[in-house]
## 1
Amino acid sequence: MDLWFTEYYTKNARFSIKIDKHIISLESEFQRIDVFDSYGFGRILALDGYLMLTEKDEFIYHEMMTHIPMAVNPNIHDVLVVGAGDGGVIRELTKYNYINKIDMVEIDKLVVDVCRKYLAQTACKLDDLRVHIYYEDGLKFVRSKYNEYDLIIVDSTDPFGPGEDLFTKEFYGNCYKALKTEGILINQHESPYYPNDALAMQKAHKKIKSVFPKALVYQAHIPTYPSGHWLFGFASKGLDPIGDLNTGWKTLGIKTRYYNTDLHKGCFALPNYVKELLKNA
Amino acid sequence: MDLWFTEYYTKNARFSIKIDKHIISLESEFQRIDVFDSYGFGRILALDGYLMLTEKDEFIYHEMMTHIPMAVNPNIHDVLVVGAGDGGVIRELTKYNYINKIDMVEIDKLVVDVCRKYLAQTACKLDDLRVHIYYEDGLKFVRSKYNEYDLIIVDSTDPFGPGEDLFTKEFYGNCYKALKTEGILINQHESPYYPNDALAMQKAHKKIKSVFPKALVYQAHIPTYPSGHWLFGFASKGLDPIGDLNTGWKTLGIKTRYYNTDLHKGCFALPNYVKELLKNA
Amino acid sequence: MDLWFTEYYTKNARFSIKIDKHIISLESEFQRIDVFDSYGFGRILALDGYLMLTEKDEFIYHEMMTHIPMAVNPNIHDVLVVGAGDGGVIRELTKYNYINKIDMVEIDKLVVDVCRKYLAQTACKLDDLRVHIYYEDGLKFVRSKYNEYDLIIVDSTDPFGPGEDLFTKEFYGNCYKALKTEGILINQHESPYYPNDALAMQKAHKKIKSVFPKALVYQAHIPTYPSGHWLFGFASKGLDPIGDLNTGWKTLGIKTRYYNTDLHKGCFALPNYVKELLKNA
Amino acid sequence: MDLWFTEYYTKNARFSIKIDKHIISLESEFQRIDVFDSYGFGRILALDGYLMLTEKDEFIYHEMMTHIPMAVNPNIHDVLVVGAGDGGVIRELTKYNYINKIDMVEIDKLVVDVCRKYLAQTACKLDDLRVHIYYEDGLKFVRSKYNEYDLIIVDSTDPFGPGEDLFTKEFYGNCYKALKTEGILINQHESPYYPNDALAMQKAHKKIKSVFPKALVYQAHIPTYPSGHWLFGFASKGLDPIGDLNTGWKTLGIKTRYYNTDLHKGCFALPNYVKELLKNA
């Protein structure tokens, strides 16, 4: 059977994955949620028709969001995760037994329910005792937090629809307040290649830079995201992702398939054209 | 009008670009050659239906093939380029005024003719006086060369069809002989993500490693190549791409849009899963 | 979301329908069964990836299979339907209150179960008391029947896979024996336009002609079948579809959306190129 | 190579043809003109991205526009063809040696030039001495004509863009005046299946009916037009397409691949749902 899921990167470029079965399709209060069985990419989650993850390469995104900050500050005990209903970031975080608390704020409970049921690969650690899930608006949740977290990971959708608030200056400001002195903010930072993504990347960077004294961008190869060139933001009150890299991270024995500490240093080295875009943000 | 050029990455994944016009389509002795005007990616060159380059992102591939070795050894004067009929590597090489000679061996004259006429963006320096074009089989050409080149760049198509010979152990052995003591071999090295590409990458790496004392792999983000995660091989008789990086490269004033010396160091830091594949090659 | 079901008419022509949801996907002993919710065509049934019906235009196929023979012989009381698990032909037959018995032989019970649950539009009359469903091989079922039916309707899939037997000379011969003197055999007869379909049409016609004294072909516009030009076979022991058309059919008050008695006469008038193909079968 | 031309029938249904080469692409004063070499359909002409004809099935359209009226009135000597720049209708008309004059009004000279050069299959008779080509607006041309033609064939594009005027009541009124007493107007009449086409069909029929005492619609199977179910209008000052069918047509010895006089009678027998749409126009 010839059934394809297609994502338009622009109106002139599209990527398509062959589908075996459409496992479930639901309309939540916030968005449409679809899970597919694909050929070659395992299960796939799409929100409002945008591909969120494939089982084949979600490890790249989730490892790069999690281990980069964890390897910079070895004293991260209290973590807030915003979005991330699929559980992938949580799964990576739970590999650190010295983390005490993981608050997860996901606006859409149905995403979590669907992932628990159909995406065990990512959702497998949502029941870890350290995890507290709040089905709330991320922006509102963070507003009331002061000096509470060592790490905030913003695993949002794109800056339109339900994820829009998580790209505002107000939100970044609230994250700053919610972080302790050695706090780190990580966010998915769109992509530099296609014009619309590049614009979103520039806007996000400009806002974060205006709030955090340190605001860098790092990259990873995520083949099923637009252009395969995806960016993340690393912002902190002072910690430097490379200068402060904890060389002891390797001794923790954490298994990763993408991340390693050499790549940690390498991934902050951006192409000139990306640096240019960020400078002109 | 709705006209799309599609490349199947596997039989279950495909990437499509919207086409405005099909500029030319020719059948040479070796392959079918097509040039398109696309929307959003400028002109596109396809050989035997495989996308070779788009004007939008060819700079990434060509810069990464050229400036990595040039920044390691500041005494590169004699260069051999195998394949590369589009001229992109030549364009980058001609930025170095201390290069004396660039031999280019391209089996298919028609590719060069088509690129001269329709792809000036890459072919613009093919008439540089240092460039000598040989329309011959690359494998045979290199066989008769001893201790002649400081750098060989193998800008081949994939390891089937006309490019097949350029992925053989015999060819790599001949390259070794053709290189001087400080010689470097660069080759396009396929991709680690999709199974078939990963296999080709492993095979190439295994062969190069058996010939060259130093054989590393580096990566770049090339959005219009399968998975966007593309690899290159750096092999040498001794020079190390990072240990021997010439910090003076920046003073040459060479303009690049992707390459820079930080990224030079970063691009050799590979993801664990890629390292694993190479180790098991 | 961009999800499309595509059917390749040949390897160079394809028709695609945008899908909202994949309602169910099952693998029976005989074939893969899929039901989709489409945009613009209502529910869709596919067997082994081939589109069997859409709610938007199944009335055309089912009316043309049923009312053509019913309007020729007003004394049809005993009917055999082979295949037709979706129930569309049954629905049309049950509009005739003077039909006494409808035997339906469908090899794949799962098709019937799925249609009962998800395709009420066609399956709505499967519980009519006159309907007797046999989950058996059509070829075997007919073998043991003599002089039993006034009408046999062969609503098969294409002549490969589970439907293959229903395109054999043996099967047509058995149908002949199973029919009474005034009996009529109707079968879906593929299409004259695309080469493979045309070949199947020719083969079927040749075989039927060798068994039945009267073997004609008629056509209908079915937009979601390959080429939109679909054919049906009308074979009998003597009755002529036009000469014997019962002008009283209109007085039965049967509601149809495609069929009428003018079109009845018109649909046997085939294009020259189709007549040529049939003559050369 | 994987290059496909796609036509969207609605936003939820599309038909695609595999392309070998894009022969030419030009922008005239009126529209974009593209010719392709396809696989399986021969050459293809597209105007503004809409498929106008394929060499594989253009005979159906052109025969049905031409021989239907020619077989009704054996005294057609003066013909006006509006649109039809590809020459297909002209080719069919020139098969009648008793036609004296064929005026052809095509607004876009470039279409004719392109077809002469790249579509000899249809354009082959444009130089017949009886043919007079006027590169003018069809609506204006007809305005000044009184009692001059026995037959007007309107071979227009769809009722938007350059073809828009040829679907107005004013145009039909002018055609009426331009026709002699036994005159016939034939026009391409869109399709009943997809909602937008059906609406266009209804609008055209309503207007023609308000101008001509006799206004019927007939159908043909044209696989590469939306739905494959295409309609034509037959309007006259009194001649009836079936009642006045000239049984002597066969003796003319005109070779056709689709048309024949049985099909002539059959093609006016429309499905109930089409009749309904026309009645409610």
Note: The domain at 58-279 of chain A is CATH 3.40.50.150 (Rossmann fold).
## 2
Amino acid sequence: MNVQRCLDILREIKDVAFATVDENGFPQIRIIDVMIVENEKLYFCTARGKDFYHQIITNGQVAITGMNKEFQMVRLNGKAEKLEENRKWIDRIFEENPSMNAVYPDESRYVLEAFCIEKGDVEFFDLGKEPIVRESFTLGNTMAKEAGFLITDSCIHCGKCERICPQKCIIDCKINQKHCLHCGLCAEECPVNAIIKRGK
Amino acid sequence: MNVQRCLDILREIKDVAFATVDENGFPQIRIIDVMIVENEKLYFCTARGKDFYHQIITNGQVAITGMNKEFQMVRLNGKAEKLEENRKWIDRIFEENPSMNAVYPDESRYVLEAFCIEKGDVEFFDLGKEPIVRESFTLGNTMAKEAGFLITDSCIHCGKCERICPQKCIIDCKINQKHCLHCGLCAEECPVNAIIKRGK
């Protein structure tokens, strides 16, 4: 798995969910088509009349997710940048996604604005495997944020977390991050509170 | 279409996208299973170790969306309430969704907390139809928020908006809200600025 393949999965799913934050600080969500994926960049568009457009223009921060039929899920958190040469990009998007002509015929396509995401964090999950598999990547030159849990030096090696982990991903007092659900049961049940949340 | 059918569509899709806002005011998204839908309420669960759990506990506001194979899309904005009698609800969820036992075997299921959404706004879209169809509903006793555009009395009946509307949903200087994309092209092109955004 790599970051380009993660973006390709989103393009294959095509109708993915985009989250933004509105002017009241509330989450907003809708299904948006992934129009182009190339060179580790993801392209989409929306109409200038939509609340979604105003939320991206105000803030730019979006979160995207989709899951395919094989239960492979991708999450992308990043900043959407409005593209210059909008007409060129909209024409290219319609060329590669001809069904758009039924929704925005003729010149009406230019009420759409094209955006690109080239920086962000990407997470890949394979929920069809037992135990589940997760991998993290960065898009562009961003810093990867650590998540999940860590067993610290306070560990007394009692073995309780190994026994209770639902995915059996703790071995020799070490969490295999690749298979961890981030459920937190180990941290809750550790008798000496040796397990902490990462990246906080 | 009605609000119960909208929730049923989300349950049928099952793996839907949930958006929240994190401690930095950024949008967050992930795929979550709709576990139970009944009596115009939607039930889901998540583990206490997850960022998603902490975001719901802090704020409660979530936005949900999913689209089925017939291109019917549902959006739900609402407040998630933590359920009392958590063990009873988790047991019921596992009974109705037995595949959960592979992810959280035995007692580990109780690291999950059950939530219910019973108040909010619901939007239904049929993107498989031409023109597209949209309908709005409320869940519980919430006020419906108007969206989209309105042609005001300043209209000079020039007919320009009728000609340029991509979905041809303006007739006799009136927008048929049921088929409107909210793209805003009519408002942009109106020569006397007679068309305004609703609900602002």
Note: The helical segments of chain A are 3-13, 51-58, 86-96, 100-103, 160-164, 185-189.
